[in-house]
Structures
1.
Amino acid sequence: MGKALLGVLVALLAPAVAAAQGISRAESWGAVATPAPGPVRIIGSTGLGCIAGAVELPDDGPGWQSVRVSRNRHWGHPAMVAWVQEFAGRARAQGFPDLWIGDLSQPRGGPMTYGHASHQAGIDADIWLDVNPKPRVPAAQRENIPVVSLVLPDGSAVDPARFTDRHAALIRLAAEMPGLDRLLVNPAIKQELCRRHSGQAWLRRVRPWRGHDSHMHIRMSCPAGQPECRGIAPPPPGDGCDATLAWWFSPEARRPSPRPPGPPPQMPAACAAVLGAR
């Protein structure tokens, strides 16, 4: 290939390469304050994706109060926002106090500069495992609410002084909600749920993951009409109270391997239009 032709190709490809690098930068997504215009479109996965046409969960409503709203991370697919509202209403009907609602997604999804590797496609939500009565307070006063772990410091089990039947009941209520793909909690919380409710069908959707000692991570299935949404394999059959759970307490699991060297994965190319839309 001649140098002249090579130079032409490089010039043609440079904008695409730059765009690919730009859309993979978390700072680019975090700087956008508003959603991309609709129609609603999920592109990619919760760990590498974006969303157009996202809607915002109100700061509060019947049964919930959003926390740390200054982050601007309470956006999602309309089905995700409706799921949170429906769940809060069901919890309220069962006598639970208002729920603290943590991060959903950014206005256009995409990677975040801190806090999450997922939550990128508008179908994730964090719901705090706080079942204490709480007053209605302005959103500005919900910025620095302390997060209380329900797990012992060594991660071996739940804290018996904090984890109660009400926590288990709230998790079960969420796990039995329609539209849920899976629900992530700390391995010690999953272990305690297995001890109390082994064999229950709803436990299949409750999966162990690092962190998640003070909240449950809700992940919806890809909504209907979203062919570009990329889900993951469903949870395996059974209640998950088996050797796969025991592995989370092994030395191997407690010391995860670092990510192999090399460039980070790139966002789907179609997300460039979502990021740049006006």
2.
Amino acid sequence: MSTRREIRLNLNGHAVRTTVETHRNLVEMLHEFGLFGARESCGQGLCGCCTVIVDGTAVSGCLYPAVAADGKRVTTIEHLDSDGVLSPVQQAFIESGAFQCGFCTPGFILMTEQLLAQNPDPDEDTIRHYLSGNLCRCAAYPEIIDAVRLAARLRASAIGRNSAE
């Protein structure tokens, strides 16, 4: 017997209401909305492929119950661009070639967004520690570190441009 519950949330800037089975996780619910950037891989919160931002905090979507998103603001990789313009982090990952198969990339990008929001100029040790919960099976780690450093510079440049306007 399955229990269903109606929830309301802000999903990528849009107020939504949906009914979810109480045993479903956030990744499963997002897939029902056609959002496939968060991917369930390990199912144990160990790889970072399912990373989603909930009320400003990165969570493992495979472990996060969908019903717990009730009343929350949920941001996925699909919402980072602005009118078709990539975020500085997305752009940095492309310019640095910080992916191979791309399966883990959304999780790394969301974690980098959160890291740079908290620490706009992290050193390499901080980057490595912060991203240690994300796994890349293709081993693009040097490029990922380069991408985070580039993203920090791009964000700082964008902030400087915006404050000058």
